[in-house]
Design goal:
This protein is about 40% helix and about 15% strand. The chain is an alpha/beta fold. The chain has a single domain, classed as 3-Layer(aba) Sandwich (Rossmann fold). The longest helix is centred in the middle third of the chain and has 27 residues.
Length: about 325
Amino acid sequence: MTGTMTSDLPINLGPNQAHPNRGHGLRRDDGDNDGNSPVMTGKRPPAKNTKLPQLLRVITKTLTMKTVIVTGASSGIGQGIAIAFGELGANVIVNYHSDKKGATDTLKKIQEAGGQGYIHQADVSKESEAMELINKAIETYNGFDILINNAGIQMDNSFSKMTLDEWTGVIDTNLTGQFLCAREAIKHFEKKKQTDTCKGNIIFISSVHDLIPWAGHVNYASSKGGILMLMKSLALEVAPKKIRINAISPGAIATDINEEAWSDEKKKKELLKLIPYQRIGNVEDIGKAAVWLGSDDSDYVIGTTIYIDGGMTLYPGFVDNG
């Protein structure tokens, strides 16, 4: 990407656009219990929300009463995914790092849609906080079913000027944070009784920059490339235990924090040159894929990355024969 385009550039070319105090902004967005921790018992009727297409509503039965943890869920893609699961009746743990208001708004939308959950503040790059996030979900709901590893940050600089703090800050959250949460989730899933069906499900949220190099953003691209092999290697290791691991790599996704990029016609025109499908994505595009990967309908999908990018990874410079 060049010029003013930043993958999460102004536009979110990956889930993790940097933004102070917002997940998918220039700061991080991970999550802690705020006291809103209902323990669901018994059967809850299917979610009443009808925003999602009919095709997705058919999987409501497989997600109702399941419990999902979404890291970095106070804004952007994480928020969209959390709401999508809530619309299908899941219990959702809304993790955030610093944007408590955003996390509260996410939970409110989940509850309005028919789902339940609570918010939990945690910096997932810190081992003790990542462990607490997972353990609280287990204590509250007697276990959980799905982890959405989404929290991340972006701290950009040219390589020769990049500080060690800028390097480690991004790697610690985007890669180590996903490792820590996944490790604790795997420990929980492994304790479940062995069956012929899925015992646990982890979805890594990465970026098209796990494939596309990105000058000026070496730390970010490196973290996303690391997620790609972390996901695949882990999928290979735990598939025999009936634990499913996959990833979603978003392209340019419009969120409130990058509105300037997609609402400005000149900037939008430049961005669309990178997208063969000629539209900018939205968080619902990611949410629909996430609930499918989290459902029993995708039970045979293992170690796969779904690129939701309008064709950005298809080398758009060759659209007119190069």
